[in-house]
Amino acid sequence: MIFESRVIRILLVEDDEGDAKLLRRSFAQVKSFRTEILHATRLKTALRELVEEDFDVVLLDLSLPDGDGFEVIDRVKQVDPQVPIVVLTGLNDENSALEAVKRGAHEYLVKGQISSSFLPKVVRYAIESSRHTRELEHTKIELKQEVESQTTALREAHARALRSERLAAVGQMVTGLAHESRNAMQRIQASVNRLRRRARDNKELCAIGEDIDVALDDLRHLYDTVREYATPLHLVKVPSNLCELWSDAISKVESVNTTSHIETVDRSPTKDPMPVVVDTHAVQQVFRNIIENAVQACSDEAVQFFLYLESVILYGRSYLSLIIQDSGPGLGDEEAKHIFEPFFTTKSKGTGLGLAISRRIVEEHGGHLDLPSEDMLSCEQRELLSLSGLKIRILFPLAQVGDG
Hints:
Blueprint: H1 2-5, E1 8-13, H2 17-28, E2 35-40, H3 43-52, E3 57-61, E4 63-64, E5 67-68, H4 71-79, E6 85-89, H5 94-103, E7 107-110, H6 118-198, H7 203-230, E8 238-240, H8 242-256, E9 262-266, E10 276-278, H9 280-297, E11 303-314, E12 317-326, H10 333-338, H11 354-364, E13 368-370, H12 379-384, E14 391-397
């Protein structure tokens, strides 16, 4: 208990020396706990002491040379809202007592009616009551945060379930459509081949045949991409290092885009990131989508990526947060609203499914993928990631003992 373990510090605010002596004498007779009393005869002095030191309770006279009435309570609460207050006054009035409690006092005592044994009990009760109130408020905040976290998790789980149902339906439809269309595309391809053979010397017809070939390839690619988006994911997760996966993805993109020059600048506070349990192939696909989008947005220019990796606690869970910023032109507000929607694209070519697939992969890992707003970033992150390029944040659950 607090009373047996240490000295109870009392701030006595009383301008009458006689009353102050009587109060000191009351506490001197207490055997159950020890006290240290600091006496202030002015409100100004008392407020300064509250700023500079910690007290367990304030014994407060409402009639002071530099403060009078209930404003005295208000001024003490402004300086230290948590400290319990026991009012000492010569006014025996029930309405005044109710008003004092309403202003934040724990007890209202009338001078001359306080026994030497009663006051220490009141002080003890005020301290205990204040402590329990703070603990309850703290518990209330924790419960509210837990409820909000669980509610968010349930909403996300429900949304994922709905998306899975829709994707399953889309997958069945696309599979059927691709099957039915395959014969038609084969006939088109056969006709183009015959046209090319017969019109070998006709450059105009040969060019038309090449255009049809490109259109057929685009259609096949669209079918494959939509099928990939709709097909259930089967993840094979192992403990992995995100920085190594990022480097591997860079190498694969550079092997295809031989004219691209890609540079990575790691601005993470730690160079030894904690492992995450992920499907390496799937995560590299997420990284390649991000890298390829930036390369295309920067045209022929060199591309820089800035990484900021740190462990965070969000939604009541520990994550490894990776913020990726490129040196490209960024997105407008309206484009940013739709960037993860299926079939939305800012490019002249593309299905608009790359980032939608990437978000789905991250969410299947139990993580999150979003565009962080400025108020979601720390001061250090805003300083280190100050370019106008696109910022993407990926959250992966941190590896737990036994994962893998």
